[in-house]
Specification:
The complex is a heterodimer of chains A (about 110) and B (about 110). Chain A has about 110 residues and is mainly beta. Chain A has no helices and 11 strands. A 5-stranded mixed sheet of chain A has the order 2-11-10-5-6, with no helix packed on it. Chain A has a 4-stranded antiparallel sheet with strand order 3-9-8-7, with no helix packed on it. In chain A, a hairpin with a 5-residue loop joins strand 5 (about 35-40) and strand 6 (about 45-50). Chain A is globular and about 40 Å long. In chain A, about 40% of the residues are buried. Chain B is mostly beta strands. Helices cover about 0% and strands about 50% of the residues of chain B. Chain B is built from no helices and 11 strands. In chain B, the strands form 2 sheets. In chain B, strands 2, 4, 5, 6, 9, 10 and 11 form a 7-stranded mixed sheet that branches. In chain B, strand 7 and strand 8 form a beta hairpin. The chains are: A mainly beta (about 110), B mainly beta (about 110). The interface between A and B is medium-sized, with 20 and 23 residues.
Chain lengths: ~110, ~110
């Protein structure tokens, strides 16, 4: 069945450091790919998405490129801020259009 | 409404009792999803509605769990004879059509004591 693998957290960085959170997936066909973010005490929010191969999703300085050949959708940000501290979820959209979530990756950014 | 609305936001119940969790999707959204997030776990898919029908119920963990949707809008997730392992945040989400971006509510925190 469809599944997603994210790097284990927590990821701990200093402010202005470069961020990469790896995500690989298995799915039938060519699913749309999403990154969702959950800030402390808040609900899940869409961060960015890509709907076809080689598309790049971007938002709030975050980027992720849909790599069909490696079935990956790694999240990157050039310079993280303390306010980026949250849990990040990679999610392919599987059959019946449901999102397939992994366990998420907690990011902690210190000043 | 402006977003997906869930109620109650918090519920503490005794083991063995039944609970109902309600979800009001964004107006006009035809697709509705229920997920569960347990402490330290990822999000677990429970059930998907398209209109009032549920083409995918594959994530419901046992026959104590059921859900319905009426009028293509409000959905209720019912857990019968609750167990402590049912303690989790139950998230509802909706989408304008299958394949579009999915929007989540704030969740209903369920604690079974």
């Amino acid at each position: 069945g469809d599944s997603v693998t994210q790097m284990e957290g927590p990821v701990t960085l200093s402010e202005e450091a470069f961020l990469t959170i790896n995500c690989t997936y298995t799915a039938t066909g060519y699913p749309s790919l999403f990154w969702y973010v959950q800030y402390p005490g808040e609900g899940l929010q869409l961060l960015l998405k890509a709907t076809k191969a080689d598309d790049k999703g971007s938002n709030k300085g975050f980027e992720a490129t849909y790599r069909k050949e490696t079935t990956s959708f790694h999240l990157e940000k050039g310079s993280v801020q303390v306010s980026d501290s949250a849990v990040y979820f990679c999610a392919p959209q599987g059959d019946t259009d449901k999102l397939i979530f992994g366990t998420g990756t907690r990011l902690q950014v210190f000043p | 409404g402006a977003g997906v609305s869930q109620s109650p936001s918090n519920k503490v119940t005794e083991k063995g009792k039944d609970v109902e969790l309600r979800c009001d999707p964004i107006s006009g959204h035809t697709a509705l999803y229920w997920y569960r997030q347990s402490l330290g776990q990822g999000l677990e898919f429970l059930i998907y509605f398209q209109g009032n029908s549920a083409p995918d119920k594959s994530g419901l963990p046992s026959d104590r769990f059921s859900a319905e949707r009426t009028g293509g809008s409000v959905s209720t997730l019912t857990i019968q004879r609750t167990q402590q392992e049912d303690s989790a945040v139950y998230l509802c989400a909706s989408s304008p059509n299958p394949g579009n971006t999915i929007y989540f509510g704030e969740g209903s925190w369920l604690t079974v004591v």
